[in-house]
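testing teh design pipeline on a random one, pls ignore if ur not involved
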């Protein structure tokens, strides 16, 4: 089971990088010189594309580097009544903490397990996941505009 999850994580990350780099390369070096005849159009669109690409990659790496795992600093002998006991981790966890069966840890404000991020999206990395998905969505919507 652990090998399957590792394989899915590897495929997800490889797909993300291949698709992103492939689209950027094909737009700058193949599509733009054919579609646009003015050098200013090619320059302007290439600059915008590189800006969006840097934004996507930056949010991706910041989302991966900031983990939402709950790691207790001080062992609480008498936890607050709002805290719940996680039988898998064998410790008390704050409210809105959920255990992930894939990551095998408790996650603060867990949203979901993301195979592109190779970890759970939660409290500390959701602020990078949301702009990452919105910029990616708008980028692909702009690429597939049928009215161009």
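output:
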């Amino acid at each position: 089971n652990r090998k399957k999850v590792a394989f899915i994580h590897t495929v997800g990350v490889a797909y993300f990088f291949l698709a992103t780099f492939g689209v950027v390369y094909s737009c700058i070096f193949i599509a733009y010189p054919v579609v646009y005849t003015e050098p200013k159009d090619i320059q302007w669109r290439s600059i915008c594309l590189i800006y969006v690409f840097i934004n996507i990659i930056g949010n991706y790496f910041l989302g991966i580097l900031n983990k939402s795992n709950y790691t207790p600093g001080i062992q609480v002998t008498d936890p607050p009544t709002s805290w719940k006991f996680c039988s898998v981790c064998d410790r008390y966890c704050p409210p809105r903490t959920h255990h992930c069966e894939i990551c095998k840890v408790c996650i603060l404000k867990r949203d979901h397990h993301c195979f592109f991020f190779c970890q759970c999206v939660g409290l500390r990395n959701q602020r990078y996941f949301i702009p990452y998905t919105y910029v990616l969505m708008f980028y692909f919507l702009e690429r597939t505009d049928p009215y161009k």
